[in-house]
Amino acid sequence: MLKRLLRHKSARIGVVLVGVVILVAILAPQIAPYDPYEQVLRNRLDPPSNSHWFGTDGHGRDILSRIIYGTRTSLLIGALSVSLGLGTGFLLGLVSGYMGGTVDAVIMRIMDIMISFPGILMALVVVSVLGPGLYNVMFAIAIRSIPIFARLIRSSVLEVREKDYILSARAVGCPDLRVMMRHIVPNCVAPLLVLASIRFATSILSAAGLSFLGLGAQPPLADWGADLSDGHRYVTTAWWVATFPGLAIMFGVLGFNLVGDGMRDVLDPRMRRRL
After folding, report:
1. What are the domain boundaries of the chain?
2. How far apart are CA 66 and CA 64, in angstroms?
3. By percentage, how much of the chain surpasses pLDDT 70?
4. Phi, psi at residue 219, to the nearest 5°?
5. Mean predicted confidence (pLDDT) in 184-199
6. How far apart are alpha carbons 127 and 186 in whole angstroms?
């Protein structure tokens, strides 16, 4: 799969972008030229220069250093929110699709109610109830992801559970748990990988939007959305303050989306012959 993925043109670009983001997050203390939280007011709103490649913000902080450390925040948000949404949605979708009947009807009606709300509206409601903060944003984004993963897994399970090898396993007396984990789950992994990659990008974008509104990461934490919010007031006087965090969000989201699209094409048997 990895070889086919690397032969996919757009996926190669996505892999490079994602690799750079991960590498920057890991090496942040080594490659950041300044302390991202150090305020030097005499350097306030300095334009890009040899001393500060991306300039400084309204508090005199180095924008490049804050973007570098902001990659850690964005990856943390994406990883935790997707993991929580994937884990919960996976269990609900697996049980719903395999058991069927009343269990399926109850779980799916709950998922339908959750997915009927616009994503940003649900996140705003959850954050408003729990209060602004980084981990509350992760929880809000994860709640939105649960019905999406659950419906995908349910549809995959409904397709797989009627296969001959599933019926044979049940006929010889295999317990339901063994049938689900040994025979059904491995055949549902491919669409999960694709959706998880795309939801990772969506989570980063949603968290940036909530931080822009002041509901996500709180100052002085380095975060792309919060830095973009802080810089929008200087758009006409100091364009670099908002531009570079915005570009970081764009390239981060683009990388994960390209990887997701490439994985979809690679894992789809109908597309595999073209690669």
Report:
1. 2-28+53-272
2. 5
3. 97
4. -55, 145
5. 83
6. 35
The predicted structure's pLDDT at residue 106 = 92
List the alpha helices (DSSP H) in the chain: 2-7, 9-26, 28-31, 63-99, 101-116, 119-130, 134-160, 164-171, 176-178, 189-212, 224-231, 240-267, 269-272
Handedness of CA 5, 7, 9, 12 (dihedral sign): positive
Q: What's the pTM?
A: 0.84
- Six-digit token string for 170: 């049940």
Percent of the chain's residues with pLDDT above 90 = 29
Secondary structure of residue 166 in the 3-state scheme: helix
Which residue type sits at 257?
Answer: N
User: Which amino acid, one-letter code, is at 6?
Assistant: L
pLDDT digits over 151-182, tens only?
988 888 888 877 777 778 778 877 877 887 78
The count of other CB atoms within 10 Å of the CB of residue 201 is 22
Mean pLDDT of 79-99: 90
146 touches 89 (CB < 8 A):
yes
Q: Give the Cα separation of 48 and 63 in Å (integer).
A: 9
Following DSSP, what letter does each residue of 15-83 receive, concatenated?
HHHHHHHHHHHHTHHHH-SS-TT---GGGTTPPS-SSSTT-B-TTS-BHHHHHHHHHHHHHHHHHHHHH
Spelled out in words, what is the top-level CATH class assigned to the domain 2-28+53-272? mainly alpha
